[in-house]
Amino acid sequence: MGAWQLLMVGVVILLGLLGVLVPGVPGSWLVWAAVLWWALEDPRPLSWEVLVGATVVLLLSQAIRWGLPARRLRESGATPRMAVYAGVGGVLGFLVIPVLGALPGFMAGIYLSERLRLGRHGEAVTALRTAMRSGGWSVLTEFFACLLIMGAWLGAAIWG
Fold it and tell me: Measured between alpha carbons, how far is 72 from 110 in angstroms, rounded to an integer?
């Protein structure tokens, strides 16, 4: 697989990550489709193992999401700015504290967004709780699964 194709797969994965944060966009399936594309173009055992792992992680995240409350983020006051802060926080957390840092990073992004908007710690914490209860856990579950898939793909593409 050429460098340009790898770059394009990476771009589709990033678009999928962004799609997770936007309601109505099948972001996780874009991430999976990018990994499928990579596995079909680079048919090595490692590619297929990453694809199988991505499928399992994605199906597991969907099963967990079904048990969580439905997304009602718009009614809770969630804004696109909050989604950007949460996404950037999740990615930075994922990179700073490998893998598990995405969880506190995502919530720190929401907190920072609300702290800047509302100005007070107590109100920002209340807004964070409301956002997480109104579907934030569902978004975080899907986003974390996509970050895991992205990390596995990146590791296999670079070191595999």
Answer: 16
* pLDDT values of the chain reduced to their tens digit, one per residue, 160 residues: 789 999 999 999 999 999 999 888 899 999 999 999 999 999 899 999 999 999 999 999 999 988 887 767 667 778 889 999 999 999 999 999 998 999 999 999 999 999 999 999 999 999 999 999 888 899 999 999 999 999 999 999 999 7
Cβ–Cβ < 8 Å for 38, 11: no
Please name the residue that has the structure tokens 């595999």: 160
| Cα 22 to Cα 1, 125, 142, distances in angstroms | 30, 23, 12
The dihedral of CA 28, 33, 36, 42: what is its sign?
negative
Task: Judge whether 22 and 82 are in contact, CB under 8 Å.
Answer: no
d(CA 53, CA 157) in angstroms, rounded, equals 15
Q: In a 3-state reduction of DSSP, which class is residue 87?
A: helix
